[in-house]
Amino acid sequence: MLTGKVISVNGPIVKAVDLRGIKMFDIAEVGPDSLIGEVIRLVEDVTIIQVYEDNTGLMPGDEVISHCRPLSVLLGPGLIANIYDGIQRPLVGISEVCGSYIEKGIKLPPLDLEKKWEFKPSLKAGVKVKEGTILGEIQESPLVLHKVIIPPGVSGTLTTLVGTGEYTIEDEIYTIANGAGVYTGKLAEYWPVRISRPSRIKKKPFVPLMTGQRIIDTFFPIARGGTAAIPGGFGTGKTMTQHALAKWCNADIIVYIGCGERGNEMTDVLTDFPKLIDERNGRPLIERTVMIANTSNMPVPAREVSIYTGVTLAEYYRDMGYSVAVMADSTSRWAEALRELSSRLGDMPAEEGFPSYLATRLAEFYERAGLVETLSGEDGDITIIGAVSPPGGDFSEPVTQHTTRFVRCFWALDKVLADARHYPSISWIDSYTEYLHDIEDWWKDLDSEWLSVRNEVMNILLEDHRLQQMVKLVGTDALPRVQQFILIVAETTKNAFLQQNSFDPIDKYCSPEKQFKLLKTILDFYHKGIELIHTGLSVKDITALGVVSEMVRLKSEVPNDKTERIDEYGKRLASELDSLKENMTGI
Amino acid sequence: MSIEVEYTKLSGISGPLIFVEGVKGVGYGEIVEIRDGSSEIRIGQTLEVDEQRAVVQVFEGTRGLSMKDMRITFVGKSLEIPVDRDMLGRVFDGLGRPIDGAPQVITDSMMNVNGLPINPWSREYPRDFIQTGISAIDGMNTLIRGQKLPIFSGSGMPHNLIAAQIARQARILSAEEEFTVIFAAMGVKFDVARFFIDSLEESGVLTHSAIFLSLADAPSIERLITPRVALTLAEHLAFNEGMHVLVILTDMTNYCESLRELSSSRGEVPSRKGYPGYLYSDLASIHERAGRLKDHKGSITQVPILTMPSDDISHPVPDLTGYITEGQIVLERELFNKGIYPPIAGLPSLSRLMKDGIGEERTRKDHAEVAAQLFAMYAKVKRIRALAAIVGEEELSELDKDYLTFGTSFEKQFLSQGYEENRSIEQTLNIGWKMLSLLPKDELYRICTEDIQRYYIPETECS
Q1: Closest Cα of chain A to B204: distance in Å?
Q2: What ipTM describes this predicted complex?
């Protein structure tokens, strides 16, 4: 243990002396309240510490203590359904101790130390074990089977292992003997947040993360183990999109990081998720969710660390072979925290005051996503979806620009769509995905035509975008009839497919099958319509059919398990269009 | 607590900052009392301390201070103000000292003006609809009890009238509960403050309101404390006394300018337009103090007003505010010039908490759909107007012309209303349906068939 003293305080940046031997990123306890801080720079005799809590009243001469341990999170059963601040302090526990407000200097263990967990061993003492060996299981929540795994870096002979029974996270569960001595294992372990947990190999992602959101799954899909960014100015629906993904994507575990955002939004998740039922297993969504809430009014340095805390928890579950999705809302607030701290350190600013290491930090964060073979030999993956809040909605700012270099999926939110309350307001012009070919085979198992149907409708949308420029100048009526019809089909696609109401009981989640059928119906309508136009019909003749306007209601009237109704509708549409044709030729 | 020691040695005065030498045992964020030759005591706060020196910001400004004859005491705690129910009906300066001639409020409760962050776990999700009587707000950008919903305005536009109308008319549908109004003015002119005081007085709200004034002629640094002082009283009234408090903060742009002034005199690295990099966090520490708490009866609803320099919504102040608040009411110059009151812009305005505060049993079942449909149609009107400007109205299709008629009626009948006019939510939605019925049923694709049957007004009845 080292003891030093404070020599200066400037906001959350504290300088201390007499801590020779302390390492970079070690934890220090500062002042009479033992505020938690982290060493971020060493200059000759001076140690520079960023304090994670409000340090009002701290003065030169106050004591600093360090145990020379890096900032770590406690990993073990009990994380699921919990909510933490940026440095893994349990918010429920804090409210029990100090009421509605977070008082400074409060310290509580992240996991319940007294709760007994039913542990079932799957090995017997005496065998050779190594890092990644699975020792047993705990049913952590009805949805999550928690595997107890030998932590990275430990191997040898399993000398003891407890039998089936109830244990707390502080009880000794197993011992491993090797040349270096004896390692005693418990149900929970510490891991430094800034270091990614090891795995055997990284693999190429190939399964899509199904989100139930049509524009994402069909047009801009993301693979499990992929990375995506959602940039958008305020009011474009970043948080609503993140919420929808957290609710309906088919990952096993969700880590939701509210990083520098609104308190009420976290409360929304907290009140909503216990009530929302996952259709696939009939259990509340909260049973697969871990939340990190470091809202905008909570200390800024803890915001900086919150995304590392979140992704470390994700890696812990990935190592058990789960598919984990991390929602980080918003990475811009994290970058701003970085900027604020670097400016207090007097760093030379790069673009817009952000430090020059912004890009490196972003890259490190997104690189922790991926599909891996875990140390246990199973497949596990982490998908990272980061919201970006560009100032003024201008995507040329540094955070958005650097993020695009490290993500392979870009869901650009469009102010114009949001203004028309077209949600999700993901622009089909500015967004892109690089995963299309990685996951194509998965979709082709559902229907071999998938890719061509998707591409054809996409082309209609792109053509519409081009035509709209012209419409702005000459109006719709001046266009040739074929082009007029393309505008109609594109409009239908926007209203009947792209726009999705996340508060509608049926429309909120759309199964892959329903997505494909809706898309196919639109495309068939297009083909048949173009044919009719060529025979001389006008666009109005087609749109006058009542059956056409029904198309926009399919998404909210046909449940996921009754998609045959879309087929029926398709037949009806086809026959009415055919009869138009007959009338034509009949004349 | 440290023993009070007087320091006399300054090494510099720069803008609102003084640099005190030789200090010992002084904490970060501590309150400082500064006495010059006169009897006046100025108040400041330490921004930075090291072993020899403390940097102090002086709330009353440094005009008239010299390096000589100064006596500086560090109080050993953060700024606290007395809070009490008796503060209602009173007028205070920007630091919470009475300026209405009546004596200081006597109370034992002192609260730190900086407050503490609310634990997200302890928040209660706001969902009680507040009827403001203004259609553009109630119908399309509903205000919810515990929300922070700013008014983004421009110079010359009637943001003050709208805020006063909200303060006067706001009520909860289910219960006859009234709002306590706390009004904080930062850097606004005296007439603006006078207007609010008068309109609160006329409507009889003044007796249960508290007013904090840091007017344009007050030192700019004082404005940094004013909203915090107001919110501290609000927190006491809401969460200790169980009242519903509506806090009006005007003008937040002035607040941000004071922050920029302070930051540049400290020589900090600026981010956009010279504003400090921590502007977002600083504004959040004010706006996040709105809300409701579990197991507490009261609530704090914030309506901050800010003027967008040259009506630019991407200016750092409105931009960062929009990222913190739960929506925004944007006033539009074009509507204002057309003589429409309130000139609340149809599209960029938004209430994020609306979705859970409306609907069956709260307002009316069709509310969400009507709002969504009106937004979608008005967006289309804007597109058609742009087209009409080029090809001429004559060239438009019949449907497009219907949309234009809808657009005009929407602005004239739905958005537009009197300063004294208090519309119930029923009235607002019925006007909404009257507007929607100007277009064919097939266009109402955001509304379910059942509601169309129930509320749509066929053409025959329409005229």
Answers
A1: 32
A2: 0.86
